[in-house]
Specification:
mainly alpha
């Protein structure tokens, strides 16, 4: 029988579909995170540079709108990613007796938690921009909402750290107990997969960090440079095809 006529390894087509779905969900979650942070940082950076109340108000509204959309977008995209990743790991254990993403999973979750922290910190500064635009009553109402959100966020952060520590301990225990099983050699995805989009993801991350540095007044780029960085972050994230 010719090699091209041989049947696919058991479960290969199903696993390929599940892994493609998980990669697409991961890409969507990362794009949402990059867009949320870069748009928030840019809107607030420009609002800081506004010279009049009339210029500051639209940017304050934009910052609030981005934050209001970012929170549910991050929650939904990351939930979908997590659900699809769990399906992949469950099927990998059934077919190949090994999950490929185990050791890296705690680091990924910690990185996502850092992204949530940055997004929330940016969102908590929104009332100040409305106060600078002379919308004092609205700014006071937003400040009260931010206080409530901050308490909920801190509580969620503590619970996440406890859950994350337990997950790390479980991952280490499973690794020691299994003795590093090589898994099933018939697994068509067990080898290293090329990362064609690594350069674009790196470019998006660098642009986001540069915007955050400008937002924190660590450097003072020209307004044109700010727009270039925002465009680079969005384009690198959107066109990346893993």
């Amino acid at each position: 029988m010719l090699l091209t006529e041989m049947a696919s390894p058991p479960g290969a087509e199903e696993m390929a579909g599940l892994r493609d779905g998980a990669r697409a969900a991961r890409r969507g979650a990362l794009v949402a995170l990059i867009a949320s942070i870069s748009l928030l940082a840019t809107a607030q950076l420009l609002a800081d540079r506004a010279t009049t109340r009339e210029q500051a108000l639209p940017l304050a509204v934009l910052s609030l709108g981005v934050f209001a959309v970012a929170v549910p977008a991050l929650a939904i995209t990351q939930y979908v990613w997590g659900a699809r990743a769990r399906m992949v790991r469950r099927r990998e254990r059934e077919l190949y007796a090994l999950t490929r993403s185990g050791p890296a999973r705690p680091l990924t979750r910690l990185a996502l938690a850092a992204g949530w922290t940055v997004t929330l910190l940016l969102g908590w500064t929104v009332p100040r921009f409305f106060r600078e635009a002379a919308w004092y009553s609205f700014a006071d109402a937003l400040a009260w909402a931010v206080e409530v959100l901050s308490v909920v966020s801190v509580a969620a952060g503590v619970l996440f750290l406890l859950w994350w520590a337990r997950d790390v301990a479980g991952t280490v225990a499973r690794a020691l107990r299994s003795g590093g099983s090589p898994g099933d050699p018939w697994d068509p995805g067990r080898g290293a997969r090329p990362r064609e989009g690594a350069a674009l993801w790196t470019g998006a991350a660098v642009a986001v960090v540069a915007l955050l540095g400008a937002r924190a007044h660590l450097w003072e780029p020209a307004t044109g440079v700010v727009y270039v960085l925002l465009t680079a972050a969005l384009v690198c994230g959107v066109v990346t095809d893993e």
